[in-house]
């Protein structure tokens, strides 16, 4: 086995072309290998010291989050917290301080777990993944990227270099909440992200995506009927029932499908409520889970 | 009689542990050492049809492969000798060791494990406690009657022990009660889950073996090795490096003999380090599952007149030390109440699960959770406030308890008042929040324990004790006791501990006994040196030895501190003459007498020496949409006698409360249809984290307790683990209006109870 620490993006891409696997924080890869899920790859290229991957850059109409940005960086970045708040909500919940200090958004996305916390926020905020090889880059939607639990459509020589997000319009707000049984070292039992845009009291756009209720992150379909409606109880109730209906949860050690189907409605409603309040200009501290007492409440 | 003038607690092992310089067993390496691995049954119940290790033995780099054929053919265990080191003919739970390998590397050991041919014919499994005691059940031990069984241990079929507590005429009294309430509570099995998975190294020199092991009880480990490998006690030396927690999981004798036998066969030192999965499935110490049926008869004025109960406890496949559990559980279901008529039947039931054994306050969290939940149900049935109901019925000084024991001075009534006042019982709380009360008790155990003490010529002291530091800090407290006797600073005292070759025997870190038993031995051994010092000082100071006081490193005449001589001078003088040596053993007190009760299957667990009492009040918030409960505050009050070491005492309460929250809400073993554990890992077995910790407010009711530990102290390590789950249960019920009758009271179970009750309201 070889382990090489890359200093530049070019080094990484050459190594991938030669068959190496990227390792960022290693919090999925190494832990998985230790648990005997997959053995460690023969050749590893460490990407955590590549500066180009560790920046958050704002352009006029979009923002680029480098794949090597850690959860800790996301939580402490004012732009993310103000404009892409749902991502900060999610990053703040990941594992423990140690996990957040080394775990990256790129690793979270490319690991492809249906329980990944940054996935649903990225979906509702319209993110695309930028995949690069020595030959160039392409962008894919997350829907295209995630194929099944633990599998992505990226080629083995492709590095995820960034997540690219359109800048939210005025009157937008987002939030992510998850159901958790304890307040650290937890995996989402279910989770939901919401992004809404308001014009006064009227919803002009709403996207909702769900964590851990389907083989991949599930974006709620057919929400167009909710646009143009006023923010009221029936709107939130419609969100909750859409989430419960469209979810395809399984039963496992953490919860039964029945319980997941119920609680995903609760989470979708709470995420949407928090997103609306933020869109209305209210500051709700990150993460919403702690600020509003969701799941293992504050 | 609190000791107020002792210096602030200094943890001698603290710097080692927090800086990482401390050495745990897994950190050790001996020259030439081999790696041990076990072949486990990985099936819950089966008859072995073929076990062939010849291919494994033939692998280069494999030095030894052992099975039942390679060790003395005998059954062991403390009370019911139902266990063998290696499976013989039949395997009865997934973690049963079938064979053991010692090889030059982990990879080769693994390869050898894979090369072992282990074929079996599956047998029907016994996992349901009620089915196990029904007629015609498959028997886990069809030959139980042929085993060596000691003590008063009635057994039949799958029932390993049957105990009862009986006083008065429960049936008649129940018939005369105004209101009768029955409840059923079911507790899942749970785990000690120490952070250090166990490790063992064995090395032979001639006919003597030294074993480094992460055990809480070095003498039990030694005795287990001696019994199973048929060795004399002076040929086996157990050394315990720093221990990374135990919580009971590392009590008893486990795998030391396997590793010693491997080392002997391989003629090399052999080392075993458990994985987390092994730590979950293999040890015979986990907290037992339980079914508790309890009925109470009460008068409208709140007087309890009768209680009956029927308990089934999951023994697992082998008995370990669990034979006292039925009686212990019955005591907790009786509870610290004045109940004149009582009949509780309690049975320990064999199943094909991992064996149960003493985990921190065995049987108490479940028993207390059930009976304290039930107590609130009884109070509600007569429209009485839970606090007032307990005020009326709990035991107090001079009262007769539910087995006919009369209590000397005790402080449960004060605990109840202090904890409820601290929590603000009766104050209004936000919607979704509530307080819950539970009271609990736990005995102190007197056992033989010895200590040596020596003061060197430079005035420094070595204390040689059989006590074992499992993290509670109580061994560290022994320094305080010696320092107090000798008028020295704690830092003048060095501990020599966790080595059976050096120290006299003692119970080790089990049953909250360190201070109680080892502490008394240390106190007496130190006092012997103190007396010698006083004799020497008397000559110097021309005073009577009885008038000499030792304090601040000086021996002086009482009342005249200026007439003094440094202790170090006396020590130097003694080093040239009569050496300053102490050696003592703690007297074993008799248990208090019981009047008016009869106990079938008596396991010495009905009469309680120096009982400890507690009241915990939990403030809980329940998210009713999801059923997630969060404990916001826990207010505790404990009567553990004199508190010698307040810092460590608070630490024990805080740890006990957190462990109790885990049991109450998130920690429970989940079994598959095949009887095997499905969540044998720290991702799916949900311990509480520090981020979940509530604020914990503790008060001690300090009553000098005669016949207890040094300076009137009782035990404290298990007591805080008794009442937390019960308090949480009552808070959840008050916050939601529904009862969750299975522990852990997971979010989904709370939600289930809420939706079931909503459906019933609708219909
Ligand atoms: C204790 C603990 C708690 C956790 N809690 C949570 C939690 O609450 N929520 C949650 O979502 N996750 C959690 N995780 C999982 C994990 O921490 C996150 O998914 C994290 O973001 C992974 O990032 P990483 O940099 O460590 O990934 P790595 O382990 O380095 O990589 C993960 C996978 O992605 C690939 N990869 C990494 N970077 C790239 C890239 N730029 N391009 C292409 N492929 C790449 C790797 O080859 C590997 O297959 C937890 C993990 C642990 C150990």
CATH architecture of the largest domain in chain B: 2-Layer Sandwich
Give the DSSP E fraction of chain A (strand runs of 2 or more residues): 15-25%
Helix content of chain A: 25-40%
Q: Roughly how many Å is the radius of gyration of chain B?
A: 27 Å
Helix content of chain B: 25-40%
User: Which chains have the largest interface?
Assistant: A-B, 24 and 25 residues
Q: How many individual β-strands of chain B?
A: 28
Tell me about this structure.
The complex is a heterodimer of chains A (298) and B (763). Chain A is of the alpha+beta class. Chain A has a domain at 172-291: Enolase-like, domain 1 (2-Layer Sandwich), CATH 3.30.390. Helices cover 33% and strands 25% of the residues of chain A. Chain A contains 12 helices and 14 strands. Chain A has helices at 9-17, 29-34, 71-76, 78-83, 85-91, 97-102, 105-111, 119-124, 142-145, 233-246, 257-279, 288-292, and strands spanning 2-5, 21-23, 43-46, 56-58, 62-66, 128-133, 136-141, 146-148, 151-152, 159-166, 172-179, 190-199, 202-211, 218-219. A 5-stranded antiparallel β-sheet of chain A has the order 4-5-10-6-7. In chain A, strands 11-12-13-14 form a 4-stranded antiparallel β-sheet. In chain A, α2 links the parallel β2 and β3 (43-46). The radius of gyration of chain A is 19 Å and the shape is globular. The model of chain A has no long low-confidence stretch (mean pLDDT 95). The longest helix of chain B has 28 residues, at 514-541. Chain B is an alpha+beta fold. In chain B, strands 3-5-1-12-9-10-11 form a 7-stranded mixed β-sheet, with helices on both faces. In chain B, α10 (364-381) packs parallel to α17 and α13 (474-486) runs parallel beside α14. Chain B folds into 3 domains: 3-21 and 446-586, Aldehyde Oxidoreductase, domain 4; 31-123, Aldehyde Oxidoreductase, domain 3 (Alpha-Beta Complex); 290-445 and 605-762, Aldehyde oxidase/xanthine dehydrogenase, molybdopterin binding domain (Aldehyde Oxidoreductase, domain 4, 2-Layer Sandwich), CATH 3.30.365.10. Chain B is built from 18 helices and 28 strands. Chain A binds chain B through residues 35, 96, 179-185, 187, 189, 253-256, 259, 262-263, 266, 293-297, and chain B through 621, 623, 625-626, 628, 630, 665-666, 670, 678-679, 681, 683-684, 686, 688-692, 746-748, 751-752. The complex binds flavin-adenine dinucleotide. Residues 21-29, 31, 67, 93-95, 99, 102-104, 106-108, 110-111, 116-117, 159-160, 185-187 of chain A line the site of flavin-adenine dinucleotide. Flavin-adenine dinucleotide binds at residues 21-29, 31, 67, 93-95, 99, 102-104, 106-108, 110-111, 116-117, 159-160, 185-187 of chain A.
